Amino acid sequence: MKKMLGFILFWVSVGMLLMFFMDNRLLGVIIGAVFLLVGYNLFCS
Q1: How many domains, in total, are found in the chain?
Q2: Are 38 and 21 in contact (CB under 8 A)?
Q3: Over the stretch 1-45, which tens digit does the pLDDT of each residue have?
Q4: Are 19 and 28 in contact (CB under 8 A)?
Q5: How far is CA 40 from CA 21, 24, 35, 37, 44, in A?
Q6: Contact predicate 32/24, CB 8 Å
Q7: Domain extent at residue 8
Q8: Which residues touch 15 (CB under 8 Å, ≥6 apart)?
């Protein structure tokens, strides 16, 4: 469980850094929503 939480936190921080450097906020929100749906489907199915 610790390894999975560490993996999740690592990728959350990568996403935060990408949003920091991205100019278009709407595109970032859309990409985040798509990744959230894909991650949910991969984890729960």
Answers
A1: 1
A2: no
A3: 788 888 888 888 888 888 888 888 888 888 888 888 887 887 787
A4: yes
A5: 25, 25, 8, 5, 6
A6: no
A7: 2-44
A8: 32, 35
